[in-house]
Fold:
Amino acid sequence: MNNLQLLTIIAEESLTSLLEKEIIAFGAKGYTASNVSGKGLHNLRDNQWEGENIKLETITSEENCQLILNHLEKKYFERYAMIAFYHPVHVIRNQQFI
Structure:
């Protein structure tokens, strides 16, 4: 069994296409994207002018996960509303993700 990670990124909707391309470029085989809402330190983002939030999830190797997180930290964290987190997962048919 390989060490696979579920990486979750919650970010401003305007970053969707960039993030989708970048996580694939860093080795993820695919992703799931959805619109989400919620409240955090910067209050609720719930108006049309600000846009919505998106959640991108990918299952990838620990190495790819770290590459993606390092990239996000350098390029986005200080300038955009974004959070990213990961945890280990056990996947059936894990060959699809490595």
